[in-house]
Amino acid sequence: MLPSPWATARRRASSLLVLLVALTGCSDDDPERAAGPSSSAETTEAAEEPEERAPLQSFTTRPDLTPPVIEVLDASSPSPGFLFLAPKQAQVQTGPIIVDDRGELVWSKPLPERRSAADFRVQTYQGRPVLTWWEGVSHRGWGEGDFVIADETYTEIARFPAGNGRQGDLHEMQLTEDGTALVLVYEEQAADLSELGGPAEGREFENYVQEIDVATGELLWEWRASDHVDRATTYVGFDEPEVGTEEDPFDWFHVNSAGLWDGDTVIVSARNTHAIYAFHRRTGALEWTLGGKASDFELGDGARFAWQHDARRQPDGTLSLFDNQSNSDEEPDARALVLRVDEEAMTATVVREQPHPEGVRSRTQGNAQLLADGGLVVGWGSEGRV
What is the pLDDT of residues 258-267, one digit of tens each? Predict the structure, then answer.
């Protein structure tokens, strides 16, 4: 009988060093970069070379399972437990997997061709631990799919789409104590981008945050980014001729996490404005902005972040996030970052930061999970390391 996945979920490895030979991650900012160069544009010579396939596991009794090989570089861990991963490379088995500290497979759910999973983790629903993930078709930096919940027998107990007929994005599905889920949506639309330096008859991504009643699928509210945030605060430009067209819609906001901050305040992380936003859960009114070009907070030494993911309020009131820092090979190394956010003094100061022991630049993706015992689990995004 397979171990219950949540029995050790709170004891996930805090110092385990893992190299995911096939890239895994809980967000999917650029799947085309998963196994190849750090740039989305390859040379003609590179494109003509045969694609290198990642090593796969095989099982005599289950030949249908071919998850990626996971190489454990250092298994010493004060917090032993299971790791929850979502491989997404095109040439490997996609779908959620659970592995132990040795990288051995504990549970696997292979998905049909062209479908993948993301944001695979343990949460609580109706007072019980459950497995949750996004499932669908991933594009370059966003996804279209449904949100899935499975019980302690690995049986699916809920599957629901985003509201208003929109497609759910792969970055987030955060359950609340009220039996609801915070989810994200990317939706392409026409836009006049001329004031920003783009085409007058252009295309852009609008970003939405929604709260869905899981039991009924009812949409409770929807927050639209452009109604509250100035597009001019983005750090994305029009350096390439395709940006702002149907081939490459202007991705000015790029929301990648959502969660409750305190009471009826929701926080969202927007990668491409380098900022975290707090808004009222019921009215949608923006309460504050942390980081970026229009920060309401004074940032202390070392507190500035860039291209970030996975902003979470911790039980002690601090804010954790994965600070990618880099969008090129010349910028600083990525790090897990914990900030103390003082809403009275309007200051943000560093409580803790953790770069990779070997120094890693993570252009896309990533997450940072604080454990109850003080440990820290970090997914290094596009580098394929945990």
Answer: 999 999 999 9
DSSP 8-state secondary structure symbol assigned to residue 72: E
Q: The tokens of 2 are what?
A: 């397979």
> What type of residue is 54?
A
| Paired tokens of 233 | 């605060």
In this predicted structure, what is the pLDDT of residue 38?
24
What does the pLDDT read at residue 81?
Answer: 86
Which pLDDT score is estimated for 93?
A: 87
Of 120, 114, 150, the residue nearest 134 (C-alpha): 120
pTM: 0.88
3-state SS class at 3? coil
pLDDT at 124: 98
Angle CA 194–275–219, to nearest 5: 85
List, in order, residues 6 or more apart from 143 with CB less than 8 Å away: 28, 116, 118, 134, 136, 137, 167, 168, 169, 170, 171, 186
Measure the CA–CA gap between 216 and 184, rounded to whole angstroms. 18
CB-based contact 76:15 (threshold 8 Å): yes
> What is the helix (H) or strand (E) element at residue 45, kind and residue range?
helix 44-48
How many residues does this entry show for the chain? 386
Beta bridge partners of 255: 270
Are 289 and 277 in contact, with CB atoms under 8 Å apart? yes
Phi, psi of 338 (to 5 degrees): -120, 125
Give the pLDDT score at 326: 84
Cα 124 to Cα 161, 258, 376, distances in angstroms: 19, 16, 20
